[in-house]
Amino acid sequence: MTLIVETVFDLDALLTDEERAWRDKARAFATESILPVAEVDFENKHFRRELIGGLAAQGFLGMHIKGYGCAGAGAVSYGLVCHEIEAADSGWRTFVSVQGSLAMSAIAKHGSEEQKQEWLPRMAAGEAIGCFALTEPQGGSDPAAMTATARRDGDDWVIDGAKRWIGLASIADLAIVWAKDEEGVVRGFIVPTQTSGFEATPIAGKWAMRSSIQCDIRLDGVRVPASAQLPNARGLSAPFACLNEARFGIVWGAMGAARSCLEAAVQRSRTREVFGAPIGSRQLVQAKLADMFVEYEKGMLTAVHLGRLKERGALTPAQISVGKLNSVREALEIAHTSRALLAGDGITDEFPVMRHAANLEAVRTYEGTDEIHQLVIGRELTGLGAFA
User: Fold this and answer.
1) Given CB 3.0 to 4.6 Å as the disulfide criterion, which of 4, 137, 297, 347 pairs with 164?
2) What's the DSSP call for residue 369?
3) Whose CA is closest to 96, among 157, 151, 44, 168?
4) What pLDDT, in 10s, does the model give residues 128-152?
5) Active-site option among 199, 361, 367, 371
6) Does domain 4-124 have CATH number 1.10.540.10?
7) 19 labelled catalytic
8) What fold does the segment set 130-234 form as a domain?
9) Rounded to an integer, what distance in angstroms lies between the CA atom of residue 187 and that of residue 335?
10) How far, in Å, are 68, 226, 350, 359 from residue 347 at the CA level?
11) Which residues contact 225 (CB under 8 A, 6 or more apart)?
């Protein structure tokens, strides 16, 4: 399936055959399995768990990890999958990110060989669902102020605290929980969600990510054995390494939502007639479409560049911040402009634009707000921190 936006700017020329194959496979799955139910699931706040098996069968879960039943795909291939999934719905790209870029990456990067063997093949197959419990109720932008604690008690660890906005927690089989030990060092733990004292409650009243699951977590004397600790996770650099994997996916995914909105606006501009002609024949409308298209392509070129850097092992956190800040900010602007061009029909579920705009508001907040990424970039430019 060739999209309108692909006929103007030849992005395919920058991709390998393998990357295009991953892209096409993800587009087919998103078109056939997610899009037909996206609007009704958003309306009904329904998480369609039966889609997980399909995502796993396509090899999308933890696809950037090598071995352990994972595909070992390149960074650009992974990005293209995120792009296509989010073009259908941000909630399902979020699922892919939480499962693969956060929970599975935490085990792959920081876990023991035994932990990798136990969990990663099951998670890649969609047989075990993971969540990543880092953000706390008082604010997600300052993880150094974490209040969750982990103390030694004999051969065990006992974890207490609270987490908020934790994706998938109420359906997860395991949680990657981050807490400070008695010395104030941040550590990571694999906590089976059936452990006594672990309670996850879905957050109600959301106007974004309505077909996705985010939860409050209460940790009340959660006791896990020493073998539950991620042995190579010490300090905030450990969860941040996982967050950077997820942020990389967002760079691509947000542009997928933008593409969906832009496609809707272009198609509608050809068929909606006002004052005796299609609105697409009007100069102001063409100017808006052109500006949206240029920002979309700039975002995609940035994503490809970051992907190539990642494949060389040269991608920095500041560069990821550039991509995340730009992609989400421009995707929201494209969604808003597309809504305006669709006029009154733009607020209905006949078009995906309002759903994408609402979801992108959540994407703008998680994995670092605009302001946090601006400060990351500012520190890189000046050498001066301005977070406090």
Assistant:
1) 137
2) -
3) 168
4) 999 999 999 987 778 889 999 999 9
5) 367
6) yes
7) no
8) Butyryl-CoA Dehydrogenase, subunit A; domain 2 (2.40.110)
9) 39
10) 44, 52, 8, 14
11) 155, 156, 157
